UniProtKB/TrEMBL annotation:
This is Pyrroline-5-carboxylate reductase. NCBIfam families: proC (TIGR00112). Pfam families: F420_oxidored, P5CR_dimer. Its main location: cytoplasm. HAMAP family: P5C_reductase (MF_01925). The gene is proC1. It comes from the Bacteria.
């Protein structure tokens, strides 16, 4: 089996690296194509991939085509691969908002998997939600799932609405965590800590809290209760967040990402 990754940026290269460790793929069965000369140079230095510049040299031989370009590059790319594809191929897209119907129309392919990963895939801690067109068989889906799992965990969702929803939670979510971290680091700096110490204070706090959450069966609310003493320091911080409606604002932000994913897909707004 051969996999072709088109777009070797943050996500494409991460998946190519992940899939190169898959037992389903033998060495050198991952082809990677990027339109940027700089990227190609980088790819040519990586021994475990075959790097390509021309679609006609790699698209026809691929069993699975993995698309990881930005949504606004999708349609131009689809039109160029259309004459090169054959109906047995499976196309996996991780592009935000690009719908299965649009992919079918513009590529002529029917076996489509739409997936939404997230950036922690870079360190094997990704979460990828995915769904597929009915033409992808159960066995093919198992293969796809096994490839997606090379970068972390995957979750199969019922339909594309849940892909857009998971974009608002897990796809864009790492940025919300970084937003929170950035604010806490800025507060630590203002309190007089050095940059290095601020970074350690914040990152260890996040790692520790997530580890606690993962190792126990308690809700975040229950954990908050365990940190906060009545009339104490944590309660002062939580009261301040409640007074400022922070919880509602975070939910609003997640819905903004969800709605943007839906909007991108409508009438192909990403084009
Ligand atoms: N970065 C993230 O956290 C996440 C990104 N995504 C999705 O992944 C996709 C890729 O995002 P990133 O990796 O962050 O982007 P990126 O900008 O890092 O990588 C895109 C790559 O595609 C290449 N490219 C552009 N047009 C091309 C073409 N026609 N043929 C071949 N290569 C081409 C570019 O040279 C670049 O190397 C996007 O559609 C995004 O919606 C999904 C979930 C998370
Ligand atoms: O911001 C974006 O559009 C992409 C999709 C999820 C994360 N990054």
């Amino acid at each position: 089996m051969k996999v072709l990754v088109i777009g070797a940026g943050n996500m494409g290269l991460t998946y190519a690296e992940g899939m190169s460790k898959s037992k389903l793929l033998k060495k050198k069965n991952i082809m990677v194509l990027d339109s940027s000369e700089e990227k190609l140079k980088e790819l040519n230095e990586m021994a475990h991939f075959d790097a390509f510049k021309k679609l006609e040299e790699c698209v026809p031989q691929a069993d699975i085509i993995f698309i990881a370009v930005k949504p606004y590059h999708a349609n131009a790319l689809f039109e160029t691969i259309k004459p090169l594809v054959h109906s047995d191929q499976i196309l996996i897209s991780i592009m935000a908002g690009v719908t299965i119907d649009a992919i079918k129309t513009h590529t002529g392919l029917n076996k489509i998997v739409r997936a939404m990963p997230n950036l922690p895939a870079k360190v094997g801690k990704g979460l990828t939600s995915y769904t597929s067109s009915k033409e992808v068989s159960r066995i093919e889906l198992l293969t796809v799932e096994s490839l997606l799992d090379t970068t972390g965990k995957s979750i199969r969702v019922r339909d594309e609405n849940f892909i857009d929803a998971s974009t608002g939670i897990s796809g864009s979510g790492p940025a919300y965590v970084f937003y929170f971290m950035q604010s806490m680091m800025e507060a630590a700096l203002q309190m007089g800590f050095s940059k290095e110490v601020s970074s350690v204070l914040v990152s260890e706090t996040f790692t520790g809290a997530v580890e606690l959450f993962n190792q126990n069966n308690l809700s975040p609310n229950s954990w908050m209760d365990r940190v906060a003493s009545k009339g104490g320091t944590t309660q002062a911080a939580l009261d301040s967040m409640d007074d400022n409606n922070v919880s509602e604002l975070i939910k609003e932000a997640a819905f903004a990402a969800f709605e943007r994913a839906v909007e991108l897909g409508k009438e192909e707004n990403y084009a």
